[in-house]
Amino acid sequence: MDYTERRDRLRRLLRRQGLEGLLVTDRLNVTYLTGFTGEDSFLLIWADGQVLLTDARFTEQAEEECPGLDVAVRPVGGTMVEAVRRAVQSARLGRLGIEAENVSVGFFDRLSARLQQVELVKTTGLVEQLRQIKQPEEVARIRQAVWQAERAFGAMWAGLQGEKTELQLAHELEMHVRSFGARASSFPPIVASGERSALPHARPKPIPIGLSPVVLVDWGANEGLYQSDLTRTLLLGRISAKLRRVYQTVYQAQQKAIFAIRPGVPAEEVDKAARQVIAQAGWGRRFGHSLGHGLGLAVHEGPRLGPTRRNQAAVLLRPGMVVTVEPGVYLPGWGGVRIEDVVLVTRTGCELLSSLPKTLEEMIL
Asked: d(Cα 333, Cα 329) in Å, to the nearest integer?
């Protein structure tokens, strides 16, 4: 990872914002800019320098993960506010950006009181907008996370039995992603059967899956830094006409959306492509979330594939963006279907990074 180049891109962005520096407080943003993976640490960056603010627990880790990076280790009993004050004054900054969504009101007020000669400017999404465009090495790590998740699903599928419970399958997925080299699951797996599959974020319960014709499985792998996120809907036994129609509608909606992904297309247009298919089938009100989201260091990051929010500019897809495409139909008291894949925006269109089977026939156990 070229962390120097990332920091230089951020510096150019800060200049355009009229900021002399930025206090990076979000843990994943610190990782993105330095490679440091410890917690409770900030990065102060300015025109011709940067310093990682941490404590003695991470002295050796910082040297190992961030060779050549200036590190300030605060003493036992020392506060982060005081460490930031010293660093800002040493850098002689007069106008400093603060990641407003990642610090408490109390921290901001304490820092303001200690830096009365410095203008603190609340910022939103500066590093996050850089993270939206993945570099080739980032895409490679996401591919690895997808591979780990897919292998885990294959291992679970191979041992699938009707008497197994939702909770057992969730535990198996977590075990299998680790067995294929992942650090952990990206998030606690969702396994929801029968009527509970109408809950988009259902928590697994000790309910045998064989009692239901449909099982929704949403899972992912954390390969060490980067994440994957996939969903498949398993079909057990005889398939009713209604289930067949719902599944085919969701499948067609996803195909339509993926076909729409290419550089320059507004993200909301991709969402609309899927939403129209579902609405025409009569279930428009039962697709109650955005079509997808960005994927990277976080499971959910920019860009968002959904309707443009009020007072926000439309997001245009750009090469290097990695997004999920996950339409769904959720019918309370009956069940739900969701299909989710990972897609890379390329210079000429898009590339599907996930490859698990997903047609209706392939999902029948």
From this structure: 13
Residue with tokens 């880790």: 61
Per residue in 101-123, pLDDT (tens digit) is 999 999 999 999 999 999 999 99
Cα 227 versus chain centre, distance? 7
Do residues 14 and 22 touch, judged by C-beta distance below 8 A? yes
Strands 341-345 and 322-325: antiparallel
Burial of 361 (0-12, 13-18, 19+ CB in 10 A): exposed
| Domains in the chain, CATH or no CATH each | 3-131 (3.40.350.10), 136-363 (3.90.230.10)
pLDDT tens-digit profile of 130-144?
999 999 999 999 999
Q: Are 124 and 100 in contact (CB under 8 A)?
A: yes
- Say how many C-beta atoms besides its own lie within 10 A of residue 94's C-beta: 10
The tokens for 143 are 């591919």
Residues 316 and 75: their CA atoms lie apart, in Å, by 46
DSSP, residue by residue, 308-351: PPTT-PPPBP-TT-EEEE--EEEETTTEEEE-BEEEEE-SSSEE
Which residues are CB-contacts of 113 (< 8 A; sequence separation ≥ 6)?
none
Give the rounded distance of the alpha carbon of 35 from its chain centre: 18
Helix (H) or strand (E) holding 170: helix 166-179
Q: Assign 112 to helix, strand or coil.
A: helix
Q: What DSSP character marks residue 132?
A: T
How many whole angstroms separate alpha carbon 294 and alpha carbon 286? 23
